[in-house]
Design goal:
- The structure holds 2 protein chains of 2 kinds.
- By secondary structure, chain A is an alpha+beta fold.
- Chain A has 5 helices and 5 strands.
- Chain B folds into 3 domains: 207 residues, Aldehyde oxidase/xanthine dehydrogenase, a/b hammerhead (Aldehyde Oxidoreductase, domain 3), CATH 3.90.1170; 460 residues, Aldehyde oxidase/xanthine dehydrogenase, molybdopterin binding domain (Aldehyde Oxidoreductase, domain 4, 2-Layer Sandwich); 148 residues, Aldehyde Oxidoreductase, domain 4 (2-Layer Sandwich), CATH 3.30.365.10.
- Chain B is 29% helix and 23% strand.
- The longest helix of chain B has 31 residues.
- Chain B is globular, with a radius of gyration of 29 Å.
- Classes of the chains: A alpha+beta, B alpha+beta.
- At the A-B interface, helix 2, helix 3, helix 4 and helix 5 of A face helix 1 and helix 17 of B.
C-alpha cells in the first residue's frame, strides 16, 4: 500500500480496518476515530483521490492503492490550499473532526471540478458545477463537527471554490 | 498596537489542519502497555447475587480483573459524596461498572467480558421524573428562591396560565470519547493524561479512591476533542479505572471508551419537567411566577445541585419577575448521573420563561416580541433579579430594540402571516428570544485561579494555567493577554499543557469563565514580573541619560521594545531587558493568583450577587415547516450579543455560532430514546442526530454591540455558554408556526421539536380542527419510552369560550394541567406501552369537558 507517497508494508489481521491500520500500525494518528461506524466522518482519508470512511473498510482491500491521509496533504512545510483556508477562516474549534473535514473537502472540490452532481444540483446534465453555499453544505454533510464550526468550514471551501 | 482585539488564529491551528495535534489516544503506546475496559451492569437497577471471575481470569491476554474490593475508597462525588464507582451490591444504572478489565488486546477484553459470570436480580427501576416524584426519591434537598408576595399577586391577577414544560436531555457527543492514559512512576506516583476539563478533579478522585496522597498524582491535559461539560466530572471514572490498573500492575494503562459506550453509559444534559403558573396583566406584563423545577439527576448527584441552582437563578432569563416563587428538586432516577452540559441548567430554567412569553402572547393575541419587550429588565428600574442582584449597565433593552430593527422583525411577522395564509404545503414561524447569562461559578470558592509565567533568556515565555483547551480558544486568549502585557509578538508565548504539577487546586474549565479567571491570573503574574523588570529598566535608562531619575512608573512596553516614556528614543528590546534582569539576579518567573471580586450567594435565603456580570443577547429565527412531513428548516437567524470587548473577535464569533448550532440540535433533532428497560436506543450518530453542516442556517447574521464593560479582564465578557440559549428562538419559531394551526389551543411542544414531534402536533391540530379525536402515536404512548413525555394541555377554554374581557376583576382562569403518557398526574410508573396515553388523553378530555361545563 502506498501511504502519503511512501510504500508501507504491515502484517495485520485481515479484519483490521484501514483506520486502525493507519493509526496503530503505521503511526499515522492524524485520522481520527469518532463513532467508528462510518457516520461522523472524522476518519475520512483519500484512496486514489476519492474520500472514504477509513473506519468502515478493511485495510487489505487497498493493497497496491494510493492512500492519502491528512499527514500527506502538505508539501513539506507548505500547507495544502484547503489546510490554509481552514486556518484563515476558522474552520475548526477542537480540531478532532478537522483532518476528516479537510480530506473530505479536498476530494469534494475535485468531485465538483469533475462535474459530479450532488443531491441539490439543479441540472444533473450540466458539465460544470457551481459550488454555491448550498452545494458546499450538501457535499460536506457527511462530516460532523460537534463544535459547530460549520460557518467557517463553508467560508473556507467557498474561498477555494471562488479561486 | 495592542494585540488585544485582533483576530489571530487559534494557537493549535497549524496542528489541527495538519493532523499533528495530539489527543489522548494519539499518544504512541509504550512498551508493556495494557488496555483497560470494564464490565457493567446489564440492568438499570439490580442486585448482584453472585459474581464469578475465575473463567475470565483464565482468558489468554487478560492481565488482571478488579472489583470494588481493590479500591481504597469507592464513594465519591464533587458536591455530595454519594456516587459508587464500582458496584458493590446494587447497581443504579445500566453500564455502571462492576469489573475493571486489563488486558493485552481488545480481543482479550472482549473474551473476558464474555467469560464473566454475573448473576443479578433485576429490581424495579425509576425511569421518569414522575416516577421519582411518586416515590419521593430525590437527590439533595429542595432549593428555593422567593421574592415579593406571590399569593397576593395571584389573588389580584388579571390573567393566569398554568402549564408544564418538558425538556429533554442531550448527549454531549464530543467527537473524542472519554479517554485516559496512566503511567506508573516510582513508589506510588502516577502520571495521568486525561481528556478532562478538570485535571484537579481527576487528581483528587484518583488519589481518594486509590488511597494516594494528592502530591503523588499528576494529571495533564494538552487538549480535548470537545468537552461541552461532559468531561467536567465524568472524566474521573475512566481515569480511576486506568489508574487502578497502572498502580496495581505497574504497567502503563490506556482506556478509551467507544462512542457507543460513551453515549450509553455517561451522563447527559439534565431533562427537566417544569410546572409553572404565571400571572399577568392585560398588557402581558408578568406580575407573578410560581415555578416548580424537577431535574432528572440520574442515579447520583454529580453536579446536579449546582445545575439546579443555575436553573433557579436563570428562570428569569431577560425578564423582570416582581413576585416569584421558584422551587427546585433533583429527581433520582436509574440513569447514568446527569452532569454539566454547556449552559449548566441555565438553559432549562430560561427556556421555561421564554415558553411562558410565547403563551402569554397567544393568549392575549399580542405579538410575542412586544410581550417580551414589555417584560424585559430595565436600565434604571425593574433591574434587580429575583435573587437580589442589581443589573449594572443593563444592555438588554438596547439589544432588543436594535435587533428587532435590524432583523426587520415587524415586517417579517406580516410576511409570515401572509405566507401561512397562502401556503397549503408549508408553515412558517418566527420568534425573537432574549438572553441574560450570569458569569461566575455559583460556588464562590471556585472563582479563583492561578497561573505560572516563566520568561526565558531569549525573551520567550511559557504560561501554564489550570484552564483546559477544548477548542474554545482559551489558550489563544491567554497567550494574547500575556503577549500584550510585555508588548511582544504572540508567537513568543506558548501556553503549556495543563498540569496539576504546575497549577494546583484549580477549578474546572467551566461556567464560561476560563479566560476570565485564568487569563486574569496570568495577567497578575505578568504584572508582578513587570514590577521587577521596570526597576531594572529604569535604572538602566537613568544611567544612560543624565538628567532623568530612575522612575519605574514611566517604563513603557511597546512593539517589542521597552523604554522610558520621557526618553522614548532610547530603547531596549524585550530580550535585552530580560538578559539585563537575569544578570542583576532578578527572578524571571512568577505565579499569579486571581479571585473574582464582590460575589456571593446564600442558598439558605436564596439571595445574593453570585455573578460578576451578565452576558446578554437576543436572537430571531425564522423556520419553515413541511405540513406533510413535519420537516423543519431553519431559514434565517439573526443574533445580537453584548460580549464586551473581545480579546479575539474571531474566536468569539466561532463560539457564538457553534453554541447556537449546538443548542439548535438539543432543541430540534437530538432525540434520546430509551427502551422500557432504561437502555438508550439512540446511542450512535446513526440514530442520534446532531446538527450537520446542512442544518446550518443559510442566513446567519451575527453581530455584537459596543459595550465598555470594565469589570472583567480587558473589558471582555465570557461567551462559551450563553449563545447556546439563543437557540431558543428556533424552538419558539416552531411553536409560533404551530399557533397558526392550533385553533383554540395554545400549541404545545416538547423538546426536541423533531420532525416527528412537529408532525404529531400538526396531525393533532388537523384532527381536532375537523372535530376528530387524536390518538398519540405509539412512540409517544410509551412503547419506546421517552424520558419525559408529558405535555401541557388544555388551553381550549381561553380566547373564544372565555373572553378575557368578560372576566370580572380578580377572576382567574383555571387551566387544568394534566399529563398523558407517563401518568405523572397520578404518580404511576409506566414501564411499557400498555399504559398508553390514548387512555389518559380521553380522561384529560373528560376533565377538560368538565372544566368547560363549569
Amino acid at each position: 500500500m502506498t501511504v502519503n507517497g511512501e510504500t508501507k508494508s504491515v502484517s495485520i489481521d485481515p479484519r483490521t480496518s484501514l483506520l486502525d491500520a493507519l493509526r496503530e500500525y503505521m503511526g499515522l494518528t492524524g485520522s481520527k476515530k469518532g463513532c467508528d461506524h462510518g457516520q461522523c466522518g472524522a476518519c475520512t482519508v483519500l484512496v486514489d483521490g476519492r474520500r472514504i470512511n477509513s473506519c468502515l473498510t478493511f485495510a487489505v482491500m487497498y493493497q497496491g492503492q494510493k492512500v492519502t491521509t491528512i499527514e500527506g496533504l502538505a508539501n513539506g512545510d507548505q500547507l495544502h490550499a484547503v489546510q490554509q483556508a481552514f486556518v484563515k477562516h476558522d474552520g475548526f474549534q477542537c480540531g478532532y473532526c478537522t483532518p476528516g473535514q479537510i480530506c473530505s473537502a479536498v476530494a469534494m472540490l475535485a468531485e465538483a471540478k469533475a462535474g459530479c452532481a450532488s443531491a441539490v444540483t439543479a441540472d444533473l446534465a450540466a458539465a460544470n458545477v457551481t459550488l454555491t453555499d448550498e452545494e458546499i453544505r450538501e457535499r460536506m454533510s457527511g462530516n460532523l463537527c460537534r463544535c459547530g464550526a460549520y460557518p467557517g468550514i463553508v467560508e473556507a471551501i467557498r474561498s477555494l471554490a471562488e479561486a | 498596537m495592542s494585540i488585544i482585539g485582533k483576530n489571530i488564529p487559534h494557537d493549535s491551528a497549524p496542528g489541527h489542519v495538519s493532523g499533528e495535534s495530539v489527543y489522548i489516544d494519539d499518544i504512541a503506546p509504550s512498551r508493556n502497555e495494557l488496555l483497560v475496559d470494564y464490565f457493567g451492569s446489564p440492568f438499570a437497577h439490580g442486585r448482584i447475587k453472585s459474581l464469578d471471575l475465575s473463567d475470565a481470569l483464565k482468558v489468554p491476554g487478560v492481565a488482571a480483573l478488579y472489583t470494588y474490593k481493590d479500591l481504597h475508597h469507592n464513594v465519591f462525588g464533587p458536591i455530595t459524596q454519594d456516587e459508587i464507582l464500582l458496584v458493590e451490591d446494587v447497581a443504579e444504572f445500566i453500564g455502571q461498572p462492576i469489573v475493571v478489565i486489563a488486558a493485552e488486546s481488545r480481543a482479550a477484553i472482549k473474551a473476558a467480558k464474555a467469560a464473566i459470570k454475573l448473576d443479578m436480580e433485576e429490581l424495579k427501576p425509576v425511569l421518569t421524573v414522575a416516577g421519582a416524584i411518586a416515590a419521593g426519591q430525590y437527590l439533595d434537598k429542595t432549593y428555593k428562591i422567593e421574592r415579593g408576595n406571590v399569593a397576593a399577586a395571584f389573588a389580584s391577577a388579571d390573567h393566569i396560565i398554568e402549564g408544564r414544560f418538558v425538556i429533554a436531555g442531550a448527549d454531549h457527543f464530543y467527537l473524542e470519547s472519554q479517554a485516559c492514559l496512566v503511567y506508573p512512576g516510582e513508589y506510588n506516583q502516577l502520571t495521568i493524561h486525561s481528556s478532562t476539563q478538570n485535571p484537579s478533579e481527576v487528581q483528587h478522585v484518583v488519589a481518594h479512591l486509590l488511597g494516594l496522597q494528592l502530591n503523588e498524582v499528576v494529571c495533564l491535559i494538552k487538549r480535548m476533542g470537545g468537552g461541552f461539560g461532559g468531561k467536567e466530572c465524568q472524566a474521573t471514572h475512566p481515569a480511576v479505572m486506568a489508574a487502578l490498573v497502572a498502580l496495581k500492575t505497574k504497567r502503563p494503562a490506556r482506556i478509551v471508551y467507544t462512542k457507543d459506550d460513551d453515549m450509553k453509559y455517561t451522563g447527559k444534559r439534565h431533562p427537566y419537567q417544569n410546572d409553572y403558573k404565571v400571572a399577568f396583566d392585560s398588557e402581558g406584563v408578568i406580575t407573578a411566577l410560581e415555578a416548580s423545577l424537577y431535574a432528572d439527576g440520574g442515579a447520583y448527584n454529580d453536579l446536579s445541585t449546582a445545575v439546579l441552582g443555575r436553573s433557579l437563578t436563570h428562570i428569569d432569563n431577560a425578564y423582570y419577575l416582581p413576585n416569584l416563587l421558584a422551587v427546585g428538586k433533583i429527581c433520582k432516577t436509574n440513569f447514568p448521573p446527569n452532569t454539566a452540559f454547556r449552559g449548566f441548567g441555565g438553559p432549562q430554567g430560561a427556556i421555561t420563561i421564554e415558553n411562558i412569553m410565547e403563551e402569554i402572547a397567544v393568549y392575549l393575541g399580542q405579538d410575542a416580541y412586544e410581550v417580551r419587550r414589555k417584560n424585559c429588565y430595565g436600565v434604571s428600574d425593574r433591574n434587580v433579579t429575583h435573587y437580589g442582584q442589581l443589573l449594572v449597565n443593563n444592555t438588554l433593552p438596547q439589544i432588543f430594540d436594535e435587533l428587532s430593527q435590524s432583523c426587520n422583525y415587524a415586517e417579517r411577522v406580516t410576511a409570515v402571516k401572509k405566507f401561512n395564509a397562502e401556503s397549503k404545503t408549508h408553515l412558517k414561524g418566527l420568534s425573537f428570544t432574549g438572553l441574560k447569562f450570569g458569569i461566575s461559578f455559583t460556588n464562590k470558592f471556585l472563582n479563583q485561579a492561578n497561573a505560572l509565567v516563566n520568561i526565558y533568556l531569549d525573551g520567550t515565555i511559557q504560561v501554564s494555567t489550570g484552564a483546559t483547551e477544548m477548542g474554545q480558544g482559551v489558550n489563544t486568549n491567554i497567550k494574547m493577554l500575556v503577549a500584550d502585557e510585555f508588548a511582544i509578538a504572540p508567537e513568543h508565548v506558548i501556553v503549556m499543557t495543563t498540569s496539576t504539577e504546575k497549577n494546583n487546586n484549580t477549578s474546572a474549565t467551566a461556567a464560561s469563565s476560563a479566560t476570565d479567571l485564568n487569563g486574569s491570573a496570568a495577567v497578575n503574574a505578568c504584572l508582578k514580573i513587570k514590577e521587577r523588570l521596570n526597576v531594572v529598566a529604569s535604572n538602566y535608562f537613568a544611567g544612560r541619560e543624565i538628567g532623568i531619575g530612575a522612575y519605574s512608573d514611566s517604563i513603557v512596553y511597546e512593539g517589542g521594545f521597552v523604554f522610558d516614556e520621557r526618553r522614548p528614543h532610547v530603547k531596549l528590546t524585550f530580550p535585552e531587558l530580560v538578559n539585563l534582569a537575569y544578570r542583576e539576579r532578578v527572578s524571571l518567573g512568577e505565579r499569579g493568583h486571581y479571585i473574582t471580586p464582590s460575589i456571593g450567594f446564600d442558598w439558605s435565603v436564596g439571595q445574593g450577587s453570585p455573578f460578576l456580570y451578565f452576558t446578554n443577547g437576543a436572537s430571531c429565527s425564522e423556520v419553515l415547516i413541511d405540513r406533510f412531513t413535519g420537516e423543519l428548516k431553519v431559514e434565517r437567524v439573526d443574533i445580537l450579543m453584548d460580549i464586551g470587548k473581545s480579546i479575539n473577535p474571531g474566536l468569539n464569533r466561532g463560539q457564538i455560532t457553534g453554541a447556537f448550532i449546538q443548542g439548535m440540535g438539543w432543541l430540534t433533532t437530538e432525540d434520546l430514546r430509551y427502551a422500557a428497560s432504561g437502555a438508550l436506543l439512540s446511542y450512535s450518530p446513526t440514530t442520534y442526530k446532531i446538527p450537520n453542516i446542512y442544518d446550518t442556517p443559510p442566513v446567519f447574521n451575527v453581530d455584537t454591540i459596543d459595550n465598555d464593560c470594565t469589570v472583567n479582564v480587558k473589558g471582555s465578557k465570557a461567551v462559551g455558554e450563553p449563545p447556546l440559549l439563543l437557540a431558543f428562538s428556533v424552538f419558539f419559531a416552531v411553536k409560533n408556526a404551530l399557533s397558526y394551526v392550533s385553533g383554540k389551543e395554545i400549541a404545545t411542544l416538547v423538546t426536541p421539536a423533531s420532525g416527528e414531534e412537529i408532525l404529531s402536533r400538526l396531525t393533532e391540530y388537523k384532527l381536532k380542527a375537523a372535530g376528530l379525536p387524536f390518538t398519540p402515536w405509539p412512540a409517544e404512548a410509551g412503547s419506546v419510552l421517552q424520558r419525559a413525555m408529558s405535555r401541557a394541555k388544555g388551553y381550549s377554554l381561553i380566547q373564544d369560550s372565555v373572553s378575557a374581557a368578560t372576566l370580572a376583576e380578580g377572576d382567574t382562569i383555571k387551566i387544568p394541567v394534566t399529563v398523558n403518557g407517563n401518568g405523572a398526574g397520578n404518580g404511576e410508573e409506566p414501564l411499557n406501552g400498555t399504559n398508553g396515553s390514548a387512555l389518559k388523553a380521553s380522561e384529560d378530555e373528560q376533565e377538560l369537558a368538565t372544566e368547560a361545563a363549569i
